Amino acid sequence: MNFFDLTNKTAIVTGACGLIGQKHCEALAIAGANVVVADLHIEKAREVAAGLPGSIHLPLAVDVTSPESLAAARDEIITHFGHIDVLVNNAAINDMFENPAMAADLSKFENFPLATFRQVLDVNVTGIFLAAQVFGTPMAEQGSGSIINVASTYGIVGPDQNIYRNEAGEQTFYKSPSYPVSKGAVVNFTRYLAAYWGNKGVRVNTLSPGGVENSQDAFFVKQYSAKTPLGRMAAPTDYQGAVVFLASDASGYMTGANLVVDGGWTAI
């Protein structure tokens, strides 16, 4: 199965120290890639890089909203490895509120803070644009590469707010407008870039994952799982095969596509 072999390829993962980012790094390393563990938190990035199997890996402190940070990372990567072959645009902000007691009120569309909306778009959309521009340009210049933009099922369908109601029927939280808006933009940015760089040998695809079980309230896990044909939320490892597929020659005739891995959530 040499189609999936990433030996001697340089693969960058942004937001690499998150729950899913670490699993992306692991999968790419197992496939043979030299992985750039790019994250805001350098100490955690070093820890993740040190734990990866296989070849030499490079931890870097990277802010995807900063062109200067990205350019410095690009220069260090090319100096270190000589080329860039894969970019996994994984860095993102999801809905979080510091005070759980205020979450239901602040997450309502009518009350959602403008500053939070702008911050999410800055990371989830502008960050992907900048990382693709900075890391993708060397790929276009060398005539090959794969960019994987991580979106979400909520970039395809609207959130079902009912699954955030507890057993007493109380709305504990609303999925905010910023996350679906940003992820929908990612899906179409992928199409734009695939069309733009297709003649340069750079493939650009979206990976749209479903929800990952990660210590959520039991009522939420039950209600999410009930809406999913496979009957469960995703495990952190459920996207590893998809990432390697999109990064490798196994998907060599695939660009501008949205690979949905959601247990069937968007099928019904």
Characterise the protein shown here.
The chain is of the alpha/beta class. It has one domain (2-261): 3-Layer(aba) Sandwich (Rossmann fold). Helix content is 41%, strand content 14%. The protein contains eight helices and seven strands, in the order E-H-E-H-E-H-E-H-H-E-H-E-H-H-E. The chain has a seven-stranded parallel sheet, sandwiched between helices. Helix 3 runs parallel beside helix 5. The longest helix is centred in the middle third of the chain and has 29 residues, at 114-142. It is globular, with a radius of gyration of 18 Å. The model has no long low-confidence stretch (mean pLDDT 96). Pfam families: adh_short_C2. Belongs to the short-chain dehydrogenases/reductases (SDR) family.
List keywords for this structure.
oxidoreductase activity, acting on the CH-OH group of donors, NAD or NADP as acceptor, oxidoreductase, seven-stranded parallel β-sheet, alpha/beta, NAD(P)-bd_dom_sf, SDR_fam, globular
Topology diagram in text:
Elements (H helix, E strand, L loop, with lengths): L9 E5 L4 H12 L3 E6 L2 H9 L7 E4 L5 H15 L4 E4 L10 H7 L7 H29 L2 E6 L27 H20 L4 E8 L8 H9 L13 H8 L10 E4 L7
Parallel strand pairs: 1-2, 1-4, 2-3, 4-5, 5-6, 6-7
Termini Cα gap: 33 Å
Strand order across the biggest sheet?
A: 3-2-1-4-5-6-7
CATH class, anyone? Answer: Alpha Beta
Secondary structure: helix percent:
40-55%
Percentage beta strand: 5-15%
Number of domains: 1
Q: Total number of β-strand segments?
A: 7
Structure annotation, total helices: 8
Helix/strand class: alpha/beta
> Can you say what the CATH homologous superfamily is?
NAD(P)-binding Rossmann-like Domain
Overall pLDDT score: 96
Broad shape: globular
Query: Low-confidence runs (pLDDT<50, min 5 residues)?
Result: none
The largest β sheet comes out as:
7 strands, parallel
